[in-house]
Task: inverse folding
């Protein structure tokens, strides 16, 4: 849908201003009855069919989401049931946002490297639109919904995966949903709407974001993060074939690229067509904007970088080749699937 069609009280002028700043034109959002688990499971089904993987061969299914289907059980168990996986398969959720895809890959790689798992399905998705107040101009037309599935398996001949990450809980207040869980349980107070000093109207059950604080955090943390992970891998930044950045904001991404002196083709951007889809933006970018480059049998040097809510940040440097990708639109949402091979981390 065009951002002009998004349910919002913003004027055309306000939406145009957001579009110019963020670089956003289109969004995909779920229906009321669709969940992140639905999107991820749809992606996983397509991936398993394409790979011809027997469900009995899967040792782990890990779901990264901030918008689970239920408070309990974990969404991983729902996906486990829907995909008809076997009872030896480990299943758990990882409650991370914008950096979550990197941490999910990190977790899966550790299970594979330890010998605990041979094959892992990593599902990552969010339906952040369900947490958005249509009267909050700071976020009303920023977030889209998407789900992804990534298959990882042991390969003794695969290259290494270098990871770097970090956290700063002091930034937890700057991107959060303050009410609705157990610190502030659902009540008339959490449902009551209030207008802030900038004219944004929301309840405690809606997402609240301090955009300036997030911007400053990103510029402070992301360039050193990129330098740290490339140095760990021994790769000069100019030699990297592809940077897969979390698609947080078009202006932020261009500023990061400028600070790191990246060439335009090194750091593709697709937030204009999907919005900020939380941790799913990284596999979505791989599938949508980098697929042709990664289908080659020649290894490409790839750095995946996630950053945001928490504050949390993480980066992966690895080589990718012959990566199978698939992008599908399901009603008003997006799912994507990828296959990666990991021998050790």
Result:
């Amino acid at each position: 849908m065009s951002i002009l069609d998004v349910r919002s009280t913003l004027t055309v002028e306000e939406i145009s201003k957001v579009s110019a700043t963020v670089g956003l034109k289109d969004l995909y959002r779920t229906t009321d009855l669709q969940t992140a688990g639905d999107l991820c499971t749809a992606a996983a089904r397509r991936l398993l069919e394409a790979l011809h993987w027997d469900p009995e061969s899967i040792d782990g299914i890990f779901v990264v989401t901030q918008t689970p289907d239920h408070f309990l059980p974990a969404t991983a168990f729902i996906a486990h049931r829907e995909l008809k996986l076997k009872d030896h398969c480990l299943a758990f959720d990882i409650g991370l946002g914008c950096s979550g895809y990197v941490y999910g890959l990190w977790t899966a790689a550790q299970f594979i490297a330890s010998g605990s798992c041979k094959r892992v399905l990593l599902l990552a998705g969010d339906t952040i639109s369900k947490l958005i107040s249509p009267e909050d101009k700071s976020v009303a037309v920023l977030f889209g919904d998407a789900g992804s599935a990534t298959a990882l398996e042991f390969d003794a001949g695969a290259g290494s995966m270098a990871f770097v990450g970090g956290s700063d809980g002091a930034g937890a207040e700057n991107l959060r949903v303050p009410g609705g869980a157990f610190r502030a349980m659902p009540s008339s107070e959490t449902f009551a709407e209030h207008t802030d000093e900038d004219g944004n109207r929301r309840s405690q059950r809606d997402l609240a974001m301090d955009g300036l604080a997030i911007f400053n955090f990103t510029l402070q943390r992301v360039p050193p993060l990129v330098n740290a992970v490339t140095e760990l891998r021994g790769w000069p930044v100019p030699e990297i074939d592809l940077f897969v950045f979390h698609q947080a904001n078009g202006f932020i991404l261009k500023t990061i690229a400028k600070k790191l002196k990246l060439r335009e083709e090194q750091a593709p951007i697709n937030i204009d067509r999907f919005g900020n889809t939380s941790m799913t933006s990284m596999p979505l970018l791989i599938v949508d904007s980098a697929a042709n480059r990664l289908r080659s049998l020649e290894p490409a040097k790839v750095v995946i970088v996630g950053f945001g809510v928490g504050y949390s940040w993480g980066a992966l440097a690895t080589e990718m080749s012959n990566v199978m990708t698939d992008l599908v639109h399901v009603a008003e949402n997006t799912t994507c699937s990828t296959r990666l091979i990991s021998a050790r981390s």
About this structure: Confidence is low (pLDDT under 50) at residues 1-5, 340-345. The chain has two domains: 3-153, 162-323. Residues 162-323 form a domain with the Peroxisomal Thiolase; Chain A, domain 1 fold (CATH 3.40.47.10). The first strand starts at residue 60 and ends at 64.
